[in-house]
Amino acid sequence: MSHVHVVAVITANSGQRAKLLEKFNANVPAVHAEDGCISYRAVTDTPDVGPFQTPIGEDTFMVIEDWASLDALMAHAVAPHMKDYGRATKDMIADRKIHVLSPA
User: Fold this and answer.
1) Which helix (H) or strand (E) holds 9?
2) Less crowded by CB within 10 Å, the N or C end of the chain?
3) For the ABM domain, which residue ranges apply (predicted)?
């Protein structure tokens, strides 16, 4: 399978999004260095967009990812820095949903 996209919806425990994003952003350079990583970034709501926007909320952020292949994504999931990140943030996360998507 070629190119895959990931949208991960991460909800922090109340009031912990900034601290969680700090740890996320510290891990980004290691992810960018992985084979097959095309793009990996966190996004939050844009303020004052208007009524057509569905806000994700003040405790939530999304991770938008592009990977050259499913194999690259699967290697990312078990990379040592991702295991370290998971251990460091597990008590900050209230909910996590990961959507792995293919071009339509």
Assistant:
1) strand 4-12
2) C
3) 4-101
